[in-house]
């Protein structure tokens, strides 16, 4: 097993930043209105699921020697109104431009969703969650 770690820092009222283990820093915002500092964590979760699967589909199609001109996935999710406002369902629609057959695209999507995509697998079977609270006596 591999351990993945990162820290999210609270910057202002609604804004947080993190640096990923691969060295990418980005901003998240808890505001859902347009014009915020960045996407919400829930938006990133949906985008991560879609992107993870799309990467798998591209790799599978390339291994089958397809000339993929354009590839995209549209993610649509239904979210609960009450807390916790989790996703109740997620639907992914894959589109490809190129010489890919429908069957091979369907096979690639199925392999991604059912076998390879780490994000979708995590959503399908949630990990054990634990937490610790550490009050700091000295402010940074």
Which labels suit this protein?
140 residues, alpha+beta, GMP Synthetase, Chain A, domain 3, 2 domains, three-stranded antiparallel beta sheet, two-stranded antiparallel ribbon, elongated
Residues in helix, %: 25-40%
Q: What CATH architecture of the largest domain would you give?
A: 2-Layer Sandwich
Strand content is: 25-35%
Shape type: elongated
Question: Regions with pLDDT < 50 over 5+ consecutive residues?
Answer: none
Number of strands: 5
User: With helices defined by DSSP (H or I, 4 residues minimum), what is the helix count?
Assistant: 3
Whole-number average pLDDT?
93
Structural class by helix and strand composition: alpha+beta
The CATH class designation of the largest domain is Alpha Beta
Write the CATH fold name of the largest domain. GMP Synthetase, Chain A, domain 3
Quick one: biggest sheet? 3 strands, antiparallel
How many structural units, i.e. domains? 2
Can you describe this structure?
Helix 1 packs across helix 2 (102-116). This protein is elongated. With 140 residues, it is of the alpha+beta class. The model has no long low-confidence stretch (mean pLDDT 93). Strand 1 (8-10) and strand 2 form a beta hairpin. The protein folds into 2 domains: 1-39; 40-124, 2-Layer Sandwich (GMP Synthetase, Chain A, domain 3). Helices cover 32% and strands 26% of the residues.
């Amino acid at each position: 097993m591999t351990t993945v770690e990162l820290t999210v820092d609270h910057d202002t009222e609604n804004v947080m930043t993190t640096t990923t283990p691969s060295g990418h820093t980005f901003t998240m915002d808890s505001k859902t209105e347009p014009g915020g500092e960045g996407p919400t964590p829930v938006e990133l979760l949906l985008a991560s699921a879609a992107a993870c699967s799309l990467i798998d589909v591209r790799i599978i199609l390339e291994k089958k020697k397809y000339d993929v001109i354009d590839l995209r996935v549209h993610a649509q999710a239904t979210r609960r109104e009450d807390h916790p406002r989790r996703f109740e369902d997620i639907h992914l629609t894959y589109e490809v431009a190129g010489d890919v057959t429908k069957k091979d695209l369907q096979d690639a999507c199925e392999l991604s969703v059912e076998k390879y995509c780490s994000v979708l697998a995590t959503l399908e079977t949630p990990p054990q969650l634990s937490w610790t609270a550490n009050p700091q006596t000295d402010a940074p």
